[in-house]
Each structure stands twice: as structure tokens, then as C-alpha cells.
Amino acid sequence: MSECRLCPRDCRADRENGRRGFCGVAGNNIKCARAALHLWEEPCISGNTGSGAVFFSGCPLRCVYCQNRDIAGADRGLEITEARLAEIFLELAQQGAANINLVTPTHYTREILRAVIRAREQGLTLPMVYNCSGYEKVSTLKMLEGIVDIYLTDFKYMDTEAAKAYSHAPDYPEVAKAALAEMVRQTGAAVFDEAGMMKRGVIVRHLLLPNHLKNAKGVVKYVYETYGDRVYLSLMNQYTPLPGMEAYPELNRRVTKREYDRLLDYALSLGVENAFIQEGETAKESFIPAFDCRGVLPE
């Protein structure tokens, strides 16, 4: 952590000595904002009991429209040790979690690896879900082989201008392509149990942004033509403009039904069958959990 290079930002921050990286994080401890059962993931992830979601503070991408902006800057959350993180995994398992869902985990990869090993030594058997932005370094992903079972990854942009404007990452498309290839290499084709719960595989999420249907089509086309039915797509219409988006008028509204229907029609025209879609009115702030540090500290 004296020269952090875990993410594609390559900021080389001296986190060991208290310097914040681009992700907003400094120090050796883990900062966590919530650890609880979460029912708002794809059905094969949440199931009936909920996914054991651990929301980590900080983010290497920092999109201007971030739905989890309260914790993306790492200003909220509590610091915990690797030992406590392992305990959290076990507590979520005892609560009936379908899996352990690591939300925005990239900048804590080393600590998470050690915590998972510790928890498995104490009996944890649940699948591990790596829930990320898609802006990942292949070398960091390689560290996770044999640890992560399911990659639940965003693929936000095929448009470099949009990536630059909204995530300050014009290299996002190429980085995300390489990262996805590594994820698929590690997991192979999706595997489900008899109840329809995913045990291994990759789900590629795309959050449709208003006025960006062309970008969305580009993502769907690339993912499907490259991987076919080996990965599942999750096409989301839940974008919610939060306060402060006035500076981006093109994003300062919800996605229309017509925009989303056109994306779904396009996916069908390509032959996409393995996909999750959202029906009805889903754009609401209730999809954003309360980052109240629930479950982070022992009761």
C-alpha cells in the first residue's frame, strides 16, 4: 500500500502513510458502510433470502451520476480489520445470505482476499460475488482466481466521450473489455443450482442513461457478439438523477419507457436470450440502501 496500483487509475498513492488514492481511501484498514441482506440484486443473486451485501467505502471510478455517491468518496463508513470482515461474512451466512456480495471492492482486494481465506477456514462455503464497476485491472482480477465465484460487473460505456465526461475515464471501454475477458476466463459458462441460484459465472450489467441509447446498444452488441450465452446481461432502467445533476442537463431526468423498450427490442434483434430486464416503474431512490453502517460492528 506504499504505492497503490490496484486499479486502472494507477495513482500510486502512499496509502500506507495516509495518502488518499483516487478512490478516496488511505491506510491499511477497510472502510465499510453497510453489511446486510440485500434483496435488490438480480433474482439469481438475491433469491428469497437476500444477498449478503457488504458495501465498501470509496470507489476508483467516481461517476458524476453515482447512485451510491454517499460512500463513493470514502467519507462515510467505519474502519474495520480483516478479522472483523471475516466475521461479517460468517454473520451474513448465519442470517441466511445466498452468497457474499462484495460491493465496490477493488481498492481493498488484498484485505478481502485474506478475509475470505480466514472465513473459509472457519466454515464459510457461500459463493463470493465481486460486484464492481467494470473498471478493473486484469492483474488485480488474477489475484481473485479461486476466490471469486461470480462476477457481477457493470459495463458502462462503449462511447469514450461519455466515459470521459461522466467518469473521467476515457480508457473505460478498452479497460472493461480486457477485464470482462479475464472474468469469463476464470468462471466459464454460468452454473446454477436446482433453485435457479447462480453458483458460478458472469452477469454484465448496463444501466441505461437518458439520451444515451446508442451507447447502450454498443455495449449490448459487444458483449453478446463476443460472449454469446456464456454471460448473462442485466439491462437496467432504474437510473435516478440525484441533486447536483443540473450541470449535466442531458442526464437530469429519468429514462423514458420508449428509450428502454428500444434497448430491449435491439437486444432481442441480436438474439439475446440470457438477460434480466426491469419491468414497470423502477427508477426511485428507494433502490439506494441506507448507508447507516448496519452490520459493520459487532452487536
From TrEMBL:
Task: Identify the cofactor(s).
Answer: [4Fe-4S] cluster
Q: Where is the Radical SAM core domain?
A: 55-179
Q: Where does [4Fe-4S] cluster bind?
A: C59, C63, C66
Q: What superkingdom does the record give?
A: Bacteria
Transmembrane stretches, start-end? none
Among Pfam families, the record links this protein to: Radical_SAM
The answer on whether this UniProt entry bears the keyword DNA-binding reads no
Has UniProt tagged this entry with the keyword Iron? yes
Q: Which SUPFAM superfamilies match?
A: Radical SAM enzymes (SSF102114)
Q: One GO molecular function term?
A: metal ion binding
InterPro entries of this UniProt entry?
Aldolase_TIM, MJ0674-like, Pyrv-formate_lyase-activ_prd, rSAM, rSAM_sf
Keywords, alphabetical: Iron, Iron-sulfur, Metal-binding, S-adenosyl-L-methionine
Describe cofactor binding as the record notes it. Binds 1 [4Fe-4S] cluster. The cluster is coordinated with 3 cysteines and an exchangeable S-adenosyl-L-methionine.
Protein name in UniProt: 4Fe-4S cluster-binding domain-containing protein
Specify the species: Anaerosacchariphilus hominis
Q: What is the lineage of its organism?
A: Bacteria, Bacillati, Bacillota, Clostridia, Lachnospirales
